[in-house]
Amino acid sequence: MQENDVKFLEDSFKKYYFEHFDLIHAPNRTSEREFGFQKFNSGMTRHISIKDDKELHLLLMQNIPSDVYCSNAYYSFPNLPMNEKDWKEADLIFDIDAKDLNLECRKNHTIFKCNECNEISTNNNNCSKCNSIKLEKKSLPCKNCIDASKNEVSKLSKILTEDLDVQQNNIHVYFSGNEGFHVYVYDSQFQQLGSRERSELTDYIMFNGAIPETFGMKKFKPSRSSFPDFEEKGWRGRFSQEVYGSKSKRSKIISELITNGYSSFQKTLEGISDKIGAKIDPNVTMDIHRIFRLPGSLNSKSGLTKILCNDLPKFDPYTEASFLDESSVEVVANCPIEFKLKNRKFGPYFNEKVSIQTYAAVYMICKKLATIS
Amino acid sequence: MLALGQDEIAKYPFLADAGQYLKDKGFTLEQFGTDPDLKSLIEKAFNRIEVAADGKIYHSDLIGDQASNQAALPREVFSFLLAIVLLKLSGMNTLIKRFALAEARRAEKYLEKDLANISDESKKQLAIRVIDDLFSVQIKKQDDYFVIPVSDYLKHSINFHEREWKLINRHVENGLVFLTPHETVRLIRKELGTYISSKIINAKTPPMISGFEESVNKLISMSKKFATYTVTTGEYPPCIKHAIEILEKGENLPHSGRFMLATFLLSKGQSIEEIAPLFKNAPDYNERVTLYQLNHLAGTSGSGTQYSCPSCEKLKTQNLCFVIPECDNIINPLQFGKKRT
């Protein structure tokens, strides 16, 4: 990124941090957490320990980070190297990202920027201008992306509360600041689980690895009575609702399933896994040493804030997570896709000089679709 | 420590404090070596080890879970305690491993039976407490099932390789996993074996007791016989070592793993008679079936096709690959350790 772009972003981020200490709090049991941050055009600094909000705010003002992170784990010595930290436990965390949902709409708002000549195109194989294959994918998520991600969050919440006995008030949902949501689970029976156990838990939540026998289908002489009922709890119930459709169709569908046989049943299970399983990023949940974006901090991929969603169905990230300045700034924008921030439409811009609000300028510069003129 | 009744100690002798038990009964170890009436118990103890070494479960004098007569109960416990003394005196670790495993299997049977006992609530409670005390797994009865918290379940189930043990294939509700008595006990099999073997390993080795020498010597020569069966030499690739370890621990090696192990060893020139004993500890071991399958793989029966060891790539997708730098990009486990030009 160019120097004057970095300076502009740093100024905007600094102003945000200075004016919004109310939004940025060190999570509870602060001194047991590991913190880390990144600066624009630079690497990660981690293994930091912090006492309280005051120290956190000082760190932000002194370093003006592009991104700030905090561990979901609790350690005796968070500032020591990893193997000396003495891991105690970790909150359960989930990452749901619109880019992992294979949505139809993605192709309408994903563009490719050539790293050689900066040309922007919709061609995903090679640059239409210089033929280079070094392309960077950029996407400006749309309402559909956000709605689909919310749907995954709801599925996840349901599995957590119904199957895994997590209390609703211990589930905290945050907009990630870019294209998805981060979900935290506090005070659950899973706090002390290691990585392998958490990996098993992700398979459960994603509906991975199910075998036909679990749903009553046997290789030889399957019996109708062992197939799940429509009202059953857990995965057998969700399976019934998805596969039977309605209670009255149960009998007919079971006959079909038995006729089609065991391996076809296995394919059915694999086929519905996307629909009934919650699409989380398994690597995030099974990582018990991760430093995860700090709530209240800015996401350098967008300039939007990672913010708590109190009312998920109504939550609109493009109005509720945008806190940057309204003042005008002149940029050269090359953003062929229209986007909306704070109820205002921007773009499309085709390599043109425009004067726009700071929050929109930051959004495009973060996505490398504009530069300060 | 649990307060145990006489018949319970007979079922779960590893729960007893050995020294205290002998004292309470008014015996010393020396007496067993010299007293002609007690000497038969040493033979019984030796027999208990011999059966275990053979991969079988010691057939006790308990009928159901009742002793045939009152005198049989202490004999059951003595033979267990004396077996430990003999094992310690012999110092043969292979025998200790086999003995602990067989005793775990034996206890497993009783635990399962006690858990499923509907007529005697106290038996069930004892089994539940044994599991809680030894393995910190809190199980509760709920209708026809036993339930345990999902987090406890996961800590144990991750050691299993079969898909049926995956959480997704379990009945889960309200943060609990529903299990049958059999599944409950199966879940802690590994820990039970570890518990018993650590108890033996940590027991003090007494000085040689007169009257014990003969049995100890017999054990030493018996373990030499087994030494020929232990095939873990440095030359085996990690996938094969892992499979052998699993079998040694008495855990279930999936079919694909058994296939890999057998085909690998056959290709290395081992005979069916040499390979078969490896599978003795498998939970579902059946000598006849094992020999049939090995003959089939070797091509000495059936179609006559000789099966070859699966490729590394195939093993990877079956979760059987545990690659290490020494593998050096080989594509089949058989190439491991060979210098490539």
Briefly characterize the structure.
In chain A, 31% of the residues lie in helices and 22% in strands. Chain A has 373 residues and is an alpha+beta fold. In chain A, a hairpin with a 4-residue loop joins β10 (171-175) and β11.
The percentage helix of chain A is: 25-40%
- How many domains make up the coordinates of chain A? 3
Shape of chain B: globular
Low-confidence stretches of chain A: none
Percent of residues in helices of chain B comes to 40-55%
Count the E strands of chain A. Answer: 18
**Average pLDDT level of chain A:** 94
Full CATH superfamily name of the largest domain in chain A = DNA primase, PRIM domain
Q: How many helices of chain A?
A: 10
Question: For the CA atoms, what is the radius of gyration of chain A?
Answer: 24 Å
Widest sheet, order of strands of chain B: 3-4-6-5
Question: Which chains share the greatest interface?
Answer: A-B, 25 and 20 residues
Q: Mind telling me which CATH architecture of the largest domain in chain A this is? A: Alpha-Beta Complex
Which range does the strand content of chain B fall in?
5-15%
Largest sheet of chain B: 4 strands, antiparallel
Strand order of the main beta sheet of chain A, please? 2-1-3-12
Query: CATH topology of the largest domain in chain A, which one?
Result: DNA primase, PRIM domain
Quaternary structure state of the chains depicted: heterodimer
Tally of alpha and pi helices of chain B: 16
